[in-house]
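TL;DR need structure tokens for one chain.
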Amino acid sequence: MDKSTHRFHELFAQLGLPQDDAGIEQFIKSHSPMAANIKLPDAPFWSAAQAEFLRDACLEDADWAMLADQLSLALREAASS
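>> reply
TL;DR here they are.
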């Protein structure tokens, strides 16, 4: 198993999203606030492949899981900042 540590922008690359700071900020801004009762992989803005990647990352407690948690938190907090 790959034990490397990934960075936030790499999660966006895995999801096929813009991975520069401006692109990440725009994605979070345009998809926030995400309701507290929605799990990150179940959000309506993901493609099937993106949702599957996020679901697998969380279920398998993969090294991507921490970044997925950070993204979930960012999507929920962005509206309050």
